[in-house]
Structures are given as structure tokens and as C-alpha cells.
Amino acid sequence: MLELRDLNAHYGKVHVLRGVTMHVEEGESVALLGRNGVGKTTTLKSVMGLVPPTGGSVNFAGTEISKMAPHRIPGAGLGYVPQGRGIFPGLSVEENLLIGLTKTPPSHITDYVFDRFPRLKERLKQQANTLSGGEQQQLAIARCLVMQPKMIILDEPTEGIMPILVKEIRREIAAVRETGVSILLVEQNIKTALRLCTRVYLMEKGVIVHEASASELENDKETLHRYLGVTV
Amino acid sequence: MELTIALALNGIVWGLIIALIALGLSIIFGLLDIINIAHGDFFMVGTVLAWFVAETTGNYWLAFLIVPIIGFALGALIEYTVIQPIKNAAALSIVATFGLAIILQESVRATFGATPERMLPPIHDTIPMFGIEYEVYRLFAAAASIAAIGLFFLFLHRSKLGTWMRAVRFDPETATAMGIPARRIYLMTFAIGFAMASLGGVVAAPITTVYFEAGVDILPFCFMAVIIGGLGNLGGTVAAAVLLAFFEGVITSFTDPTFARIGSLCLMSLVLMIRPHGIFAGATR
Asked: For the whole model, what pTM was predicted?
């Protein structure tokens, strides 16, 4: 479904991504893990066209999207939940929710989203910045879902969320996965990543250095410690 | 006393026209981070085009339809050719728009001439108000400005394009990732800013002098309204424009207009010292 081949990206003269190659199959959930500053977020932004790739290719559902205008990429079926949630604070919850749509979504979609996130339905007219961190994250995920994506890219969805709500967010992502939507997840919470995803890529200094199934990696203490500095 | 009332009313009318112009300046700054030195000249182009339409067709009212459309088209063209290439160098925007201001002024001087022109108000009647006879056209100008400002806020808060403009202003990157064509929104915003300033020019043409340097006089006032109202705070800009013009109108009835402007600048300095983000900072944007 999503295939990155030899992807390169620069911030000015700084070479950030140095030939990233990875793929996500249809219906699969994949995690991209690594220490801070290794290029995980840049990889996601390059896929979304927000950091234009300087080399390599990004193929999504049979279409080369690396040359597409960035605002057309969501229309191809790629949803994005940015780091820090990316909620527009001066807009209402409803405006945030429907921001990416030009037409009213079908009722079965809004019903599905409000069934999953009933608190958003109660707060539709409220300014989005009055929501709690957890609710804002729900809104960011719901905003993607109303666009009916084939795949969702999530950048640290549990960052800055109260521990009690992390489980809830995790449950929501798992529920999305069960509907057949592919997932590419960047996450600092290794436990969350390993629970939600079946396959994992490890990244270091702008390159993919290791690929394994989540269950293999969970038991591979040495690799976890070497590349992430943690044990699970 | 009659003079004070007349100048205070004139101040409110001018304040509303300035508010319409300054709103354009404010949205351009808020969304594009462009300090638009040429904004006063967008107003000037509006006054000159209104005068030209009235002279050539004999129908001033036609200018209300034609001039904002021309302003929108010119704004789009300028954004595409001047603003877009310097989008990532905010400091250059001052130099570029200063150059643009000179180009607009000299183009008008070259085509319409350097002689200041006066237009007769299309409505000649007066109406008794607060013990004085007040021009009906000025009341119309105030009503037209209020209607245009109201329509703009309605557009900003009730239309999809308006919602997109607000979203891009907060976070262009995420907005793009949600499928919003941020590049096109920048162009539309600049074009709308020009259209609003030129509409202000049409409204003001019968009560001001039409000449190629008219924008130079109005620009500092627009900036003061934007700064006192709070940078990027649209409601604050409107309120500050009306309050400032009213304040200057009242002062002018007692002393020289220069002292009124000095008073406004002192007021702005005071606001910047006490509330650096403007009087209305923190209010709903």
C-alpha cells in the first residue's frame, strides 16, 4: 500500500533522511521507532509532502505521491495525525472535524465517528483549544477518519496525554486498525507501539537499521537497548 | 460645540472606512506575515478607479461593483508575482511592498495625472443630527463600511474558504496535511485584502481628495489601528480604527490636526508600553 524507496530529505544543507526504504501492506500496522532526532517525523512529513523529498520515491496505492502537490495527498486516501495533534485552536470542534472536507460527510461516517468519540459530539460548538489533551487527540484521529482514509499516519499520538487516557487512545487506534485501515505509527511509548503494530522498523541517523516483527523485537533485548536505549 | 459634533461624527465615519481598509492589512499580516507598506496605495487605487468610473460612465455607483473586482484581480496578480517569491523572507516583504507602493503611485501619476481631484458626493442631501445638518452620503459611507465589515466576518466564520483561511493562519503545515491548498489561500487572502482596501477607496472617494499620494496619508493610521487593536486581531482592529478616528476628530475640533495625530501616536505608544500585544489582545480573534 505504501512503499518508500531510497527516500532522501534535507533541511537546508542538513541531510536528514539518507535513503529510507520501507513499506506498509494493505491492512497492516507498522511502527517506526528510534531515538529523538533520528528522522522519524521527517520521514512522515516527507510522505505527506510537507518536507519535500530530495530523492527517492513514495508510492501509495499504486500512485507516485512524492511529486504530488502536498494538499492533494490526503485526497489519495492518506490520513495524518501530526505530532502535537495539530488542532486549530481558534476553530470549533466541528470546524476542525470537517476541515478537510468540501461536502458534508455521509451520515454513516459521522455516526461511526461519534460512536467512537461521543465526547466530541457533545462539544461540537466548543472552541477546540478548550478540549483536554486526550480529547484533542481524539479530535485529531476523528478528523482523519471522516476523510475515510485507506491509511493513517500517526506521529506520537500518546505524547503529552495523561496515562489514564493513553489506554483509551490505544484502544481507538486498535479499533481503527480492525476496520482494515493501514497504520504507520511513530511512537516513543515502545509498549504502545509493540502492542498496536505487527511489524517494526528501527531508525538511526536517517536510515532504517533494523526490521522485525513486533513479537521478535519484544524479545530482542539487545536490539531494543542498542537502538532505543530501553528494555520492555 | 457644533464643530466638535461634526468632527466627531466625521471621525466615526472615517474610522469605519479605515477599519475596512485596516482589516485587509491585518489579514495579510496575520496569514502571510507580510508587512504591507503598499496597503495605503491599494486604497488610493480604489479612490482613483472610483473617480475614473464616475467620470467615464457618469454612474458612481457602478464603482461599487467594478472596483473591488479589479482590486481582487490586481491583488491576486501581485501576490503571485511579488509576494510569493519572497514568502520565506519576511524582512524582504517591507522592501518589496515599498517598491510596489512606488510603482502603484507612479503608475497612477503617469496614467491619471498628478492633479488632485475632488468628486461630488452622489447624495447631496443633509439630515439634522445632534443639532447639526449632517451629510447623508457620510452616513451612507458608514453604513456601507459596516455592511462590508459584517459581510467579511460572515465570510470568515461561515464559509468553507473563510474557515480554511483561519486554519492556515494557525498552522499552514497541518492545514496542508488536511488537504487545504495553503498556497491558493495565501493568494486569495492577499486578493481579498486588496479588494477590501479598494472598496474603502470607493466609499471614501466622494469625501476625500483623489490623488496618487492619498495612500501615503492613510497607511500610518491603518498601522496604528492594527497595532492598537492587537496584531492579527480583526475585531480589535475594527474597534481601534473607530476609536482612534473618533479621538482624532474630537481633538481636531479644538486644535490643529497635526496635534490630533501626535495625540494618536502618543496613545499608541502608551498602549504598546502597557499592553504590548494591543488593547484587545487575548480577545476572540
From this structure: 0.88
